Amino acid sequence: HKKLTIVLGNPEPHGHYRGRGRDHFLAARLAYAVGVAYGSSVEVSIVLDTDPRLNLAEGNLIVVGGPAANVVSMQLNEHLPIRFDPQRGFALVSKCSGRAYGDDNYGVVELVENPFGRGLVLLIAGVHLPGTKAAFAALFKHGTRLAEPNAYDNRVIAHVVEASDSDGDGEVDDAFILE
Fold first, then answer.
1. Taking a C-beta distance cutoff of 8 angstroms, is the pair 138, 159 a contact?
2. Which of 20, 54, 113, 139 is the most exposed place for a label (fewest CB within 10 A)?
3. What is the DSSP secondary-structure string of 30-65?
4. What stretches in the chain show pLDDT beneath 70?
5. What is the pLDDT of residues 154-178, one digit of tens each?
6. Residue 88 to residue 30: CA distance in whole angstroms
């Protein structure tokens, strides 16, 4: 029995930046997809980043949202190949390409070793909510490409994505993989 914890940002103001998790609706589809793919062979728990029972060293984690909205994402930030820079409005800064991505429409999908314990951490986040939507769109539409190494550093699975509204209805429904 494998254990997977999905960590969502608390919707109430919290943490150093007093952010709010507003991306829970995106994680619902992800939880459903995990259930369909793995059934009862994976024990899935969904917790808020402020839950005192949260054990980051236990099993694999999926962390949803950037450091402004999710304190676990903030703790993870220094261990990421593509990190958020709070001094630059949470712009993404890539150690892989040396580039910075500051627009709200940029997001990341990164798979790293769990720095808190055993297992892996999948981060799905954006500079702001449109970027997080882009990261989820990329995950669902381009998942196999996201499982490949970064174009600038083949040692890491970490990608910057940019939101796209492919059908012109004003909603993010796809993403371009930039690196």
1. yes
2. 113
3. HHHHHHHHHGGGEEEEEEETT-TT--TTSSEEEEES
4. 1
5. 999 999 999 999 999 999 999 999 9
6. 29
